[in-house]
Amino acid sequence: MSEDKIIIMSETFENEKTGDQVEGITIIIDGKLKSMLDIIIDKEDGYNNYTELVKDLMFAGINQYVDKYKK
Protein backbone atom coordinates (compact mmCIF):
# COMPACT_ATOMS: atom_id res chain seq x y z
CA MET A 1 0.00 0.00 0.00
CA SER A 2 1.34 3.44 -0.91
CA GLU A 3 1.98 5.76 2.01
CA ASP A 4 -0.04 8.59 0.41
CA LYS A 5 -3.23 6.68 -0.38
CA ILE A 6 -6.30 5.70 1.55
CA ILE A 7 -8.31 2.64 0.64
CA ILE A 8 -12.06 2.84 1.12
CA MET A 9 -14.26 -0.02 -0.01
CA SER A 10 -17.98 0.33 -0.58
CA GLU A 11 -20.78 -2.19 -0.31
CA THR A 12 -24.55 -1.86 -0.55
CA PHE A 13 -26.82 -3.21 2.18
CA GLU A 14 -30.56 -3.39 2.57
CA ASN A 15 -32.19 -1.79 5.59
CA GLU A 16 -34.28 -4.62 7.03
CA LYS A 17 -36.98 -2.30 8.38
CA THR A 18 -37.47 -0.02 5.37
CA GLY A 19 -36.07 -2.03 2.47
CA ASP A 20 -33.97 1.00 1.47
CA GLN A 21 -30.54 0.40 -0.01
CA VAL A 22 -27.77 1.97 2.09
CA GLU A 23 -24.05 2.25 1.44
CA GLY A 24 -21.58 0.80 3.91
CA ILE A 25 -17.89 1.58 3.76
CA THR A 26 -14.72 -0.04 5.04
CA ILE A 27 -11.66 2.15 5.62
CA ILE A 28 -8.28 0.41 5.59
CA ILE A 29 -6.14 1.86 8.40
CA ASP A 30 -2.55 1.45 7.18
CA GLY A 31 0.55 3.40 6.15
CA LYS A 32 0.61 7.15 6.75
CA LEU A 33 -3.03 7.20 7.87
CA LYS A 34 -2.25 4.63 10.58
CA SER A 35 0.79 6.62 11.69
CA MET A 36 -1.22 9.84 12.01
CA LEU A 37 -4.08 8.14 13.85
CA ASP A 38 -1.61 6.42 16.19
CA ILE A 39 -0.19 9.84 17.14
CA ILE A 40 -3.66 11.19 17.90
CA ILE A 41 -4.60 8.09 19.94
CA ASP A 42 -1.34 8.46 21.89
CA LYS A 43 -1.86 12.20 22.59
CA GLU A 44 -5.63 12.37 23.17
CA ASP A 45 -7.41 10.85 26.13
CA GLY A 46 -10.45 8.70 25.43
CA TYR A 47 -9.34 6.97 22.23
CA ASN A 48 -8.40 3.31 22.44
CA ASN A 49 -9.19 2.33 18.85
CA TYR A 50 -9.48 3.75 15.36
CA THR A 51 -13.26 3.44 15.12
CA GLU A 52 -14.19 6.17 17.59
CA LEU A 53 -11.37 8.43 16.43
CA VAL A 54 -12.31 8.17 12.75
CA LYS A 55 -15.96 8.80 13.64
CA ASP A 56 -15.06 11.97 15.56
CA LEU A 57 -12.71 13.16 12.82
CA MET A 58 -15.40 12.64 10.20
CA PHE A 59 -17.98 14.61 12.18
CA ALA A 60 -15.46 17.41 12.82
CA GLY A 61 -14.74 17.62 9.10
CA ILE A 62 -18.41 17.53 8.15
CA ASN A 63 -19.21 20.24 10.69
CA GLN A 64 -16.42 22.38 9.24
CA TYR A 65 -18.00 22.15 5.78
CA VAL A 66 -21.50 22.84 7.14
CA ASP A 67 -20.21 25.94 8.92
CA LYS A 68 -18.40 27.06 5.74
CA TYR A 69 -21.54 26.84 3.62
CA LYS A 70 -23.85 28.45 6.20
CA LYS A 71 -22.16 31.80 5.55
Describe this structure in words.
Helix content is 48%, strand content 23%. The chain has 71 residues and is of the alpha+beta class. Strands 1-2 form a two-stranded antiparallel ribbon. Strand 1 and strand 2 form a beta hairpin. It starts with 6 loop residues before the first strand and ends with a helix.
Overall number of strands: 2
Low-confidence region ranges: none
* Main sheet characteristics: 2 strands, antiparallel
Helix content: 40-55%
Strand content: 15-25%
Order of helices and strands: EEHH
- N/C terminus separation: 39 Å
Structural class: alpha+beta
What's the overall geometry? extended
Short key terms for the protein model shown above:
alpha+beta, 71 residues, two-stranded antiparallel sheet, extended
Brief write-up:
The chain has 71 residues and is α+β, with helices and mostly antiparallel strands. 48% of the residues lie in helices and 23% in strands.
Layout: helices, strands, pairs:
Elements: E1 7-14, E2 21-28, H1 31-43, H2 50-70
Antiparallel strand pairs: 1-2
